[in-house]
Amino acid sequence: MEHQNTSIKTPQFSHITPEDLDHIYEPSEDSFLLIDTLEKDLELIRARHPAVCLEVGSGSGVVITALATALGPYCCYLATDINPRACRITQETGQVNGVSVNAINTDLASGIRAQIDVLIFNPPYVVTPSEEVGRGDLEHTWAGGELGREVMDRLFPRVGELLSPKGVFYLVVLKENRPQEVAEVMALQGFSCSIVLSRTTGPEKLSVLRFTRDR
Ligand SMILES: C[S@@+](CC[C@H](N)C(=O)[O-])C[C@H]1O[C@@H](n2cnc3c(N)ncnc32)[C@H](O)[C@@H]1O
């Protein structure tokens, strides 16, 4: 029987320059929490035999690249970002780590018609005035507006049509985003929610939620 690795390597990202980091999100605690979540759930993900994985808002591309190196080439890896520079760097991060990631410059998942088996989103979740949402490249990375929910809330109504029947959706949230309320919104679409990992770093309590269809 073939031995399958149960760990996920952190991708190499030293090709990202300080100038790039003036425009895109530097891999941070939340990025690594998400990678740790995917590692924890790797058996669950493999058991679903995913064919298409999509990361919305891929930034540097470390998260989708980490998943691609763990699952291998029998799957198609897509990424989106509102920032074209993040798309270019996501593709480069894939190449540098020997995997192919197709990064598309679009708002959330606009224009994506595929059935996604693994959907990932580490959204801009910081509570800010609404005017800061989408004001510039760096604001795109963190400014979440009211309750930090203004960007993620726009994706939720599309999750039902985007996810394949066996699909799984991972979402990073902050305590201030009211995770219980997010779970209730998704429950109305027939998804059940579990907290896979939580971590407190400084003042931030971050969690990664997993949504799957109710059976
Ligand atoms: C918190 S960063 C996460 C980056 C990366 N996924 C990670 O975990 O390191 C949020 C990312 O979402 C992108 N983003 C923000 N609003 C978006 C939108 N409406 N559509 C697509 N991407 C968006 C930002 O440009 C940024 O790259």
The CATH homologous superfamily is named Vaccinia Virus protein VP39
**N-to-C CA distance:** 31 Å
| Strand runs, count | 7
Work out the count of structural domains.
Answer: 1
CATH topology: Rossmann fold
Structure write-up:
The chain has 215 residues and is α/β, with parallel strands linked by helices. It has one domain: 3-Layer(aba) Sandwich (Rossmann fold), CATH 3.40.50. It is built from seven helices and seven strands, in the order ααβαβαββααβαββ. The protein has helices spanning 29-40, 42-47, 62-71, 84-96, 137-142, 152-162, 179-187; strands at 52-56, 76-81, 101-105, 116-121, 163-174, 191-201, 204-213. A seven-stranded mixed beta sheet has the order 3-2-1-4-5-7-6. β6 and β7 form a beta hairpin. α1 (29-40) packs parallel to α3 (62-71). The longest helix has 13 residues, at 84-96. It starts with 28 loop residues before the first helix and ends with a strand. The mean pLDDT is 95. The structure holds S-adenosylmethionine. Residues 25, 27, 30-31, 34, 56-60, 62-63, 80-83, 86, 107-108, 122-124, 140-141, 151 line the site of S-adenosylmethionine.
Give a topology summary.
Elements: H1 29-40, H2 42-47, E1 52-56, H3 62-71, E2 76-81, H4 84-96, E3 101-105, E4 116-121, H5 137-142, H6 152-162, E5 163-174, H7 179-187, E6 191-201, E7 204-213
Parallel strand pairs: 1-2, 1-4, 2-3, 4-5
Antiparallel strand pairs: 5-7, 6-7
Helix pairs in contact: 1-3
The structure holds S-adenosylmethionine.
